[in-house]
């Protein structure tokens, strides 16, 4: 048996749980007295964009938010009248102009109160007087509250619909009650409101639409046990086999919640008894896991497969689920109908072993009788130990038994007193022995009882088992720093290379854990490490990479300031070399001991490893030799290795040689040394223009890595700047422009051999375009200054893939990409000041530079374009002018000042004001209104006027407050553009 804890069924099938937000009470969500929930109005004055906005609100008659009113609430008249159902008084108060503001504020809450009390006349009156049919309380629209009014629900819902209520309104993903984006039919089904459900279906609500969590109305009704609603939904066409997001059907959900009547009905209607969820769970598995005995018996009667195996957890049967949860009666029912007691889980555990490990004593007794027969001992001390859930409990039982055993066997004296251990194990029989032994060993280790540990190991306890905590016996002994205990385990064959989890959940070997203890000065730390190493079975390179290995932790201490620690580290390292294969022991990334020695620059250790046969040219999984790793470091180490018979011409898996790696890390001294290895009269060892299979030379690699000094040094030594990389068709000029390496550009631009500087790469980008995309676009002005020296060069060349010129790219550039922009100027302005730049060229969407300046809120570029007389009325492919795309109020004002048409409509009739409202451009809206933009213009696609589009947001303050969401959305899109641009240089 594995001592590991198998994941419980709750973890694997936790999705089969009811939603807590569906309580079955008939009360209203907000409480019995709505008066307590009507807040007083505020005297605070709302912050307005300008007086233009205030004028707009008054002119268009928009509903003001509560905070805009100065009147204090007075409940004495209209609210009391409606509360008492005095319709005449209520009408009189509702029509009283003195109380208009009061009623506008209070009527929505009064409507909710009337719905709760089912006062139909009041509901109709309030709706006629303008109460909001879509008002929400605690995140639920009023139509949800109407659903709960039983036989009155259809009439109330119809009144709400007649006055504009949204039939498809949802609770939203994060409303106050925790509901998960459900509609009114979901709500009715979950609450068992059959009248409302029937009415909503008749109104066309989709009967099978899942909510955002994946549940359909049928599933919601089934899991809550609302049989009549289940019958209705099926009669109206709901699919009997509809599935939840995890593959669970209505039958499975009803079974999980113990809804016997619903389960019986669904089975009689044709639900398949052995249908499975995505995890391979059948209804019988789910009911067994949940402990619903009556449903288990019904499913068995209906022919359910009693030994169906799940996918996750792997190979669990209904009996395994029942035993794991301790549902004894369910297990007995399954066993009485032939459940297999010999089934093994994927971890190799039996049903009995799971029950004992989880501490289910009664369940274990049932299984002992089923597996071992009626006469099998079920009241043994061994079983108590096997089901105990703590070392303290086990230790207490063992102490008691050891004392009592002396009265059982008078010979148990002196060295023979441990005879009680086999006696206890024998009393429990072979079915209990293994789990009892596991728990006894855990307790003995926890209390550092070497004698009991040794006795258990002699009796067959596995010294390398992994306990349910993730620890091995050696792990526990290590943590106790108990040398005798460690020695006992090692002599019994404990594996010191077996991984176990530490307190943080990391998987480490006992040796690694012991070395960490030694590092932190734990008592006997060195002795523990040496004892483990002496076993000859340790893996000193176990770990993800060279730096995370146990060997690396020791080597790091070679540079300690404490001489004693240095001596201890050297001693441990020597012993490590004595007990390991220096070439075969590797970390997960393929690093050897030699890689570790080079990584930490330990020349003495390098020579020591060579003397014991370590391969100085060994490669890790990425093809890096120790010499290539040294090229990232310093010239002394490179020189040292070069004299130790290393192969200096080796390359890694990408094809990078020593020069590329040194260039990538900016190691000029290493580059100089490597080039110095060449002898005049021999074939050069180091080719300065060597390239990997993709065409990356050391020069290009240095540029890509941002090492300008290294790139300049390579140029001086003869690096060829005009070679192209094969994967993207770029030359050094492309890379240098994208990295804004001005000194490199100044060196390579005058060279006639490199061709036109408007050459496009495989993606259609020129060096100038890449310069405009650079995080710090400082090379744009330099490139422009040199264009005049290149006859025939076209700076307006358009990317055939994206349709953008360099100017388009510069204008689409996020303004916040780098603080360097403010210092060196924006590339768009550099281009606009250049005499040969085409300021009318259009992008793939037909947008001009002015469109882009307006859309991407580049005020400086917009002013410059306007000063040069560009057209304000150019339309893109959708008929939009620059003003339609403008979110910046300053740019909008500038466009209007120069004659932009504030009422221009695009191909769908959308005016700039429509766009401002839809995107919550509050300040731009004010500018447009001040310039005379019409609120009545209707679009051709959805037929809305600006005012109607504004009203869809609710109150004025609702619209203003929504601006932050759109600002965040715009910021996210800008970050995405920034990431896309920066990705071109990775």
Automatic annotation (TrEMBL):
Q: Which SMART domains does the record cross-reference, listed alphabetically?
A: ANK
Among InterPro entries, the record links this protein to: Ankyrin_rpt, Ankyrin_rpt-contain_sf
Q: Which keywords appear in this protein's UniProt record, sorted alphabetically?
A: ANK repeat, Repeat
Official protein name in the record: Uncharacterized protein
Looking at the keywords, is Hydrolase present? Answer: no
> What are the ranges of the ANK repeats?
213-245, 246-278, 279-311, 314-346, 469-501, 589-621, 845-877, 908-940
Q: Where is this region: Disordered?
A: 1-44
Q: Mark out the compositionally biased spans (Acidic residues).
A: 21-38
């Amino acid at each position: 048996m594995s001592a590991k804890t198998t994941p419980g069924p709750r973890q694997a099938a936790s999705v089969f749980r009811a939603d807590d937000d569906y309580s079955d009470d008939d009360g209203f969500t907000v409480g019995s007295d709505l008066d307590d929930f009507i807040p007083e109005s505020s005297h605070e004055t709302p912050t307005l964009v300008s007086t233009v906005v205030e004028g707009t609100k008054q002119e268009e008659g928009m509903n003001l938010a509560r905070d805009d009113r100065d009147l204090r609430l007075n409940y004495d008249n209209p609210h009391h009248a409606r509360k008492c159902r005095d319709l005449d008084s209520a009408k009189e108060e509702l029509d009283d102009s003195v109380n208009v503001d009061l009623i506008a504020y209070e009527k929505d809450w009064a409507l909710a109160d009337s719905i709760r009390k089912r006062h139909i006349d009041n509901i109709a009156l309030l709706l006629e007087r303008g109460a909001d049919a879509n008002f929400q309380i605690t995140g639920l629209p009023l139509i949800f509250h109407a659903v709960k009014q039983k036989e009155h629900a259809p009439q109330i819902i119809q009144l709400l619909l007649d006055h504009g209520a949204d039939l498809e309104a949802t609770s939203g993903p994060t409303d106050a009650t925790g509901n998960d984006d459900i509609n009114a039919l979901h709500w009715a089904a979950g609450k068992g409101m059959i009248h409302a459900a029937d009415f909503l279906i008749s109104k066309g609500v989709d009967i099978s639409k899942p909510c955002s969590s994946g549940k359909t109305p049928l599933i919601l009704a089934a899991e809550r046990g609302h049989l009549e609603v289940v019958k209705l939904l099926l009669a109206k066409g709901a699919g009997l086999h509809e599935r939840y997001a995890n593959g669970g059907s209505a039958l499975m959900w009803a079974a999980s919640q113990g809804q016997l009547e619903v389960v019986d009905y669904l089975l009689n209607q044709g639900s398949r008894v052995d249908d499975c969820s995505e995890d391979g769970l059948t209804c019988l598995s789910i009911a067994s896991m949940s402990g619903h005995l009556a449903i288990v018996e019904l499913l068995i009667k209906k022919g359910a497969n009693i030994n169906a195996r799940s996918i996750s957890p792997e190979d669990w049967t209904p009996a395994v689920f029942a035993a794991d949860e301790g549902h004894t009666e369910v297990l007995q029912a399954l066993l009485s109908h032939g459940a297999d007691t010999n089934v093994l889980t994927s971890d190799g555990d039996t049903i009995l072993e799971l029950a004992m490990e989880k501490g289910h004593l009664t369940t274990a007794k049932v299984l002992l009788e089923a597996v071992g027969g009626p006469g099998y001992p079920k009241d043994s001390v061994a079983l108590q130990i096997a089901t105990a859930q703590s070392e303290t409990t086990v230790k207490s039982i063992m102490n008691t038994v050891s004392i009592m055993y002396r009265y059982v066997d008078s010979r148990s004296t002196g060295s023979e007193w441990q005879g009680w251990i086999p006696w206890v194990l024998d009393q429990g029989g072979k079915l209990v022995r293994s789990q009892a032994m596991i728990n006894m060993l855990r307790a003995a280790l926890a209390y550092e009882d070497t004698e009991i540990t040794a006795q258990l190991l002699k009796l067959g306890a596995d010294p390398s088992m992994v306990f349910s905590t993730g620890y091995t016996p050696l792990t526990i002994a290590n943590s106790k720093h108990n040398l005798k205990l460690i020695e006992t385990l090692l002599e019994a064959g404990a594996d010191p290379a077996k991984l176990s989890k530490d307190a943080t959940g990391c998987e480490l070997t006992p040796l690694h854990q012991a070395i960490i203890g030694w590092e932190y000065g734990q008592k006997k730390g060195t002795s523990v490490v040496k004892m483990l190493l002496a076993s000859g079975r340790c893996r000193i390179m176990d770990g993800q990479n060279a730096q995370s290995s146990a060997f690396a932790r020791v080597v790091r201490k070679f540079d300690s300031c404490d001489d004693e620690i240095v001596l201890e580290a050297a001693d441990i390292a020597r012993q490590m070399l004595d007990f390991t294969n220096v070439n075969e022991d590797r970390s997960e990334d393929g690093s050897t001991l030699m890689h570790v020695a080079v990584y930490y620059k330990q020349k003495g250790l390098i020579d020591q490893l060579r003397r014991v046969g370590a391969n100085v040219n060994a490669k890790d999984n990425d093809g890096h030799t120790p010499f290539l790793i040294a090229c990232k470091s310093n010239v002394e180490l490179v020189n040292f290795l070069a004299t130790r018979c290393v192969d200096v011409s080796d390359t890694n898996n990408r094809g990078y040689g020593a020069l590329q790696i040194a260039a990538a890390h900016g190691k000029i001294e290493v580059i100089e040394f490597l080039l110095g290895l060449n002898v005049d009269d021999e074939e050069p060892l180091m080719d300065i223009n060597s390239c990997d299979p993709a065409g990356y030379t050391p020069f290009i690699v240095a540029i890509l890595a941002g090492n300008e000094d290294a790139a300049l040094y390579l140029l001086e030594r003869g690096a060829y700047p005009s070679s192209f990389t094969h994967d993207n068709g770029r030359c050094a000029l492309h890379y240098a422009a994208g990295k804004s390496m001005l000194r490199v550009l100044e060196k390579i631009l005058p060279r006639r051999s490199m061709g036109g500087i408007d050459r496009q790469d495989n993606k259609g980008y020129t060096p100038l375009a890449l310069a405009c995309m650079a995080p710090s676009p400082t090379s744009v002005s330099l490139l422009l200054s040199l264009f005049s020296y290149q006859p025939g060069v076209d700076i307006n060349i358009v990317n055939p893939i994206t349709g953008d010129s360099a100017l388009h790219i510069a204008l689409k550039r996020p303004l916040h990409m780098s603080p360097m922009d403010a210092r060196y100027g924006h590339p768009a302005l550099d281009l606009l000041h250049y005499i040969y730049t085409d300021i009318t060229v259009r992008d793939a969407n037909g947008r001009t530079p002015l469109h882009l300046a307006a859309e991407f809120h580049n005020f400086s570029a917009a002013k410059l374009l306007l000063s040069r007389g560009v057209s304000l009325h150019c339309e893109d492919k959708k008929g939009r002018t620059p003003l339609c795309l403008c979110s910046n109020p300053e740019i909008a004002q500038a466009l209007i000042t120069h004659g932009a048409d504030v009422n221009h409509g695009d191909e769908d009739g959308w005016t700039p004001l429509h766009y401002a409202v839809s995107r919550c451009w509050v300040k731009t809206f004010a500018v447009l209104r001040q310039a005379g933009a019409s609120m009545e213009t209707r679009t051709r696609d959805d037929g809305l006027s600006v005012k109607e589009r504004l009203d869809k947001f609710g109150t004025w303050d609702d619209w203003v407050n929504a601006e932050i969401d759109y600002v965040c959305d715009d910021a996210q899109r800008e970050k995405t553009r920034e990431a896309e641009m920066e990705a071109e240089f990775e």
